[in-house]
Amino acid sequence: MSILKEEFPVEAMDFVTAGEASAQIKRLLKKLGVDPGVIRRLSIACYEAEINLVIHSDGGKLTLEMNPENVSLISEDVGPGIPDIDLAMSEGYSTASDDVRMMGFGAGMGLANMARNADRFHIDSKVGEGTRIEMIFDINK
Amino acid sequence: MTVNDVASVLGAALLTKDTDTSRPVREGYSCDLLSWVMAHGREGMAWVTVQTHMNVIAVASLHDMSCVIIPEGIHVEDEVLEKASEEGISVLSSGLTAFDICGRLAAAGIGAC
């Protein structure tokens, strides 16, 4: 049974508010008394997902859902999709533009960092439609 | 060593208001690639970067870093400093290069991660 479910819309190419959803989610989990280690892992993965939505999608949303055992974070977007997920998952591979790289993004670390921080990670993508990433974080490990 | 001590070792100016400068600094880090810092940042870090946009504060805050140090007197926009103050992240400005900042912090006993 879910204790909480909340959605956070993320706009494409909006670098001013990028990170706001992750900061809100972090504050919310702190209020709910979730273990700081879990909050930290989730916040990092969440920020990576949020930045990916800003950089690569045409807009999307993050959905946070919590139950007594775990917290799930789902990133869904409308966008170009990922043609080769294995390649996109490999560290150092990025399709980010030069402008985005000038800001210090696009090192090709995002997806791998999400997978590393989540207890379970699943990604689905359809070229020309969009990408869905589901991450689960166990609360009581 | 605290954020205050770091500022004094570097002769750096504190640009943010009302942040906790008595916070301990556990280690130092220098990197301008935000994606890299997301993967390698840690709690209590003093992070040296030439990047000054809003996302620097988001990354520092998500990692619960102690402070961000901007080298070579690079200008930081007011909105970024307001955001940093809101998030409780101290931002220091130094006239030194990132290389010199790291050298001085290392000499003062701050280790790397």
Query: Reading side by side through the largest sheet of chain A, how are the strands ordered?
Result: 1-2-3-5-4
| Rounded radius of gyration of chain B (Å) | 12 Å
CATH topology of chain B: Udp-n-acetylmuramoylalanyl-d-glutamate--2,6- Diaminopimelate Ligase, Chain: A, domain 1
Number of strands of chain B: 5
Query: Mind telling me the CATH superfamily name of chain B?
Result: HprK N-terminal domain-like
Based on DSSP secondary structure assignment, what is the total number of beta strands of chain A? 5
Order of helices and strands of chain B: HEEHEHEHEH
Low-confidence stretches of chain B: none
Query: What's the CATH H-level superfamily name of chain A?
Result: Histidine kinase-like ATPase, C-terminal domain
CATH architecture of chain A: 2-Layer Sandwich
Look at the helices and sheets of chain A and give the structural class: alpha+beta
Q: Give the strand content of chain A.
A: 25-35%
CATH class of chain A: Alpha Beta
